[in-house]
Amino acid sequence: MEELMGIYIEDMKEYLAVLNDSIVLLERDMSDKAAIGEMFRAFHTMKSSTAAMEYKRTAGFIHSMEDLLHEIREGRIPVKTNIIRLFYDTYDLIEEFVKSVITSGKEGDSNTDAVLVKVKAIIGGKGFPDADDPKNGKTGEKTGVFMLHKNDLGRIRKAVKNGDQVYKITVELAEDCYFKSVRAWMMLEEIAKVSRIICSSPVKPDEDDFKNGEFKFDGSTIQAHIASEMSREELMRELDNKISEIKSVDIEAVKSEFTPVNDDIENVAGIIEDIIGGDNDATWTSGKSSDDGNKDKIGELLVQAGCINPEDVDEIIKKQKESYPDLKFGQIAVNEEKVNAADILNALNAQGNVRRDINQAYIRIPANKVDNMVDLMGELLITQSLHKQEITDTINGESRLLSSIIRMERIAKDLQSITMSLRMVSLKQTFQKIYRIGRDTAEELGKNIIITTSGEETEIDRNVVDKIHDPLMHLIRNAISHGIEEESIRLQASKPAAGNIAIVAYNQRGNVCIEVSDDGKGLSLEKIFKKASEKGLIDPSRKYADDEILKLIYLPGFSTEENVNNVSGRGVGMNVVMSEISRLGGRIDIDNSPGSGCTFILKIPVNLATINGTIIDIYGSRYIIPTLNIKQILKPEQDQWISFKGKRSMALVRNEVLSIIPMGSILGKKTDDEDCEMNLIMVVEHEKKLMVLPVRSIQGKQEIVVKSIGSDFRHLNFISGATILGDGRVSLILDIDTLFKMTESAKPGKEAD
Q: 11, 329, 368, 388: least buried by Cβ within 10 Å?
């Protein structure tokens, strides 16, 4: 029963994710039959498995939602905003149920009665109870939360690549507009005359749907992304004042993130996205050698990557070859662009094996088994390193034994890489939850917000993914509460009425980067400094650099909100963000543009079990420093040292004066011993700052298995962990963040604390 319970809980989590994604899609397009079908199947499966586990009350509740979806599928009940909100409430109740089952094994006491009353009334043809109650959806029409999905982003990138200009159009209906459906249809018709609509909210209806009365729109904001050869001014002339009862029309070019980047791998990755299904208009084929009879190289790559079925290769090539007769062997054509096989493979690898989950077998394994395997692999690498060191010390020159041990080392590293990948999960579910939080926050505050996400397939360690939920939650709530201005203020500043928030994830140098950006008012340095001074958090007489002022927002108790509400004002959120990200060994960068917006960039290690480390000798002891932090290693000349009161405290490197990390003071050594550590210097980087770390020698570089240090050594805050090297001795891992802080806080001529 315990094993069945584990399987049941994991199934419920998966179907909740499907349900969440489908609700978001249905909110975007309330006629999306595919989303309705996905929701129906999710409810049906959850109902059956919940009943089998004898949670009868919850099974009955889910069964009622299945009945509602059946009526919607049959076309007897139209999807409206109130029903979307009902689905979100249902999702929350099922999620609460799952949490209760996990913690207590029981259904819990969530009250489903209110939702059931509404469902029964809708199915019974009585409409939505208390339809005029603001809680039931009328105020929600004003928020206009609109999410760009993967297909939309793919089409936008494609349009830009083809030379079109892409714009976002925001149309505000007049407050006294009584025929909103008519005005929305007419406006979308006008837009379609002068451009190609990529996506819109509401979705542009067919003329028959409009005439038959099937198209309904009760909102106040019409939004569309379009592709056009016209300039913004030309489009404005074509659209402005064409239709009555329109309050405003705003047109702006899309942001730069939609523009294809120059990097070849990224371009190919976008093409692969189209092949896999990112754009339904994409076609592909591959060249086949006419003289060597070999299997098609591209076909093999895509089959191995799981993009297509093996049996479909020949048929697809046969059908498409006629359209692209000039393709060479090992090439693929997507939207008339030819790409080589090697680029395809690189793109797949660079994007973390982007692929459809088809024709692949899966085995469900308990998470603790994977964790144990990761730990054992770490021990295996340490033992293997010990053996290699012993054999190298006892054998001079080449030998079969040494060759075998080197080969075993390569196999062990490959095996560890595969083992670590088993613990990697995508950010998709995290992004779904954050989107929902953003949607609800915008609705609560009555703000018009457009939320976009990309890079949700980026993978991160399973042990990390749950810990980044709270930081992301606080960031998106702050962006909506503090960053995005009220509509009237945005319009006065010549901004579109709808605010934009983008959540983007990508891999960079061993880190997963997550950006949360908004096009609001940005952070005011003056306001931050004033508030921090009023609260006694800083010395108002001291002069602070801009980046120092920005970092004051992370202080506990700091907030610029005058009035405390359900979203902000307590001075807790940003402190949580900094604390959690620091615990994960990550960091936060801020890209602030006052008046235009702000971007928070989280940089988090992909996994916390291993790092690529460089072994250094300081005062005769070996330490590890993460290789990614090292910018340069050099042997200094005497004229590069800069002394203060007879002590070397800075160094001149490439015409830049850099502070020296005082390792002698930090380690409790006598200052007279400092000079013996000046054989080599390493220029290390942290948060875009550079400092100099003096070392006696560099002893090598290798993959390091990170071990946590015991509580007895926690006072050594400049140590982030430990590892066992090849000779069996323990080596400490230096915490670059802390070393930088200790150096900055130490006054010239004095020792660091």
A: 368
Non-local CB neighbours of 178 within 8 Å, separated by 6+ positions: none
Exposed e or buried b per residue across 189-206, where buried means at least 16 C-beta atoms within 10 angstroms of its C-beta: ebbeeebebbbbbbbbbe
Residue with tokens 């070849």: 264
Candidates 141, 146, 145; CA nearest to 81 is: 141
For residues 736 and 123, give the distance between their C-alpha atoms in angstroms, rounded to a whole number. Answer: 62
Mean pLDDT of 697-701: 86
- Measured CA to CA, the distance from residue 448 to residue 146 in angstroms comes to 9
Quote the CA–CA distance of 749 and 648 in Å, as a whole number: 9
Residue 255, pLDDT above cutoff 90: no
Comparing 419 with 753, the larger pLDDT belongs to 419
CA distance 425 to 352: 11
Tokens linked to 218: 């009760």
Task: Quickly count: other Cβ atoms within 10 Å of residue 163's Cβ.
Answer: 8
Residue 176, φ and ψ in degrees, nearest 5:
-95, 20
Q: What is the mean pLDDT of residues 74-102?
A: 89
CA dihedral sign, ordered 665, 669, 670, 675: negative
Under 8 Å between Cβ of 435 and 453: yes
Checking if the pLDDT of 325 tops 70, the result is no
Cβ atoms of 367 and 465 within 8 Å: the answer is no
The helix/strand/coil state of 592 is: strand
pLDDT tens for each residue of 527-537: 888 888 888 88
Residue 179 to residue 173: CA distance in whole angstroms: 10
Most distant CA atoms of the chain, gap in Å: 91
Pairing type for strands 587-593 and 597-605 reads: antiparallel
User: For residue 265, what pLDDT is reported?
Assistant: 32
The candidate with the shortest Cα–Cα distance to 512, out of 476, 571, 459, 469, is: 459
Closest CA to 663 of 583, 735, 582, 587: 735
Residue scoring higher pLDDT (747 or 229)? 229
Pair of tokens at residue 250: 């705003």
Q: Where are the alpha helices (DSSP H) in 423-495?
A: 428-445, 462-465, 469-478, 487-492
pLDDT band with cut points at 50, 70 and 90 for residue 514 = very high
CA distance linking residue 380 with residue 274, whole number of Å:
41
313 vs 182 pLDDT, higher one: 182
What is the per-residue pLDDT across 353-385, written as a single tens digit (0 to 9) for each? 464 343 445 677 777 888 888 878 877 887 887
Number of C-beta neighbours around residue 656 at 10 A: 9
Instruction: Tell me how crowded residue 358 is: count the other CB atoms within 10 A of its CB.
Output: 10
Check: CB of residue 257 under 8 Å from CB of residue 506.
Answer: no
- CA dist 503 and 498 (Å) reads 16
Within a 13 Å sphere around the CA of 183, how many CA atoms are in the beta-carbon half?
25
633 bridge partner residues: 682
Q: How far, in Å, CA of 250 to CA of 233, rounded?
A: 11
Number of H helices, E strands in the chain: 24, 26
Query: Could you tell me the CA-to-CA distances from 732 to 381, 670, 735 in Å, in that order?
Result: 17, 21, 10
By DSSP bridging, strand 246-253 and strand 221-228 are: unpaired
Mean pLDDT of all residues belonging to the chain: 77
Reply yes or no: is the peptide bond before residue 366 cis, omega within 30 of 0.
no
Instruction: Supply 707's token pair.
Output: 């071990």
CB atoms < 10 A from the CB of 657, how many?
10
| Beta sheet of 689-695, edge-to-edge order | 630-634, 680-686, 689-695
Whether 343 shows a pLDDT value over 70: the answer reads no
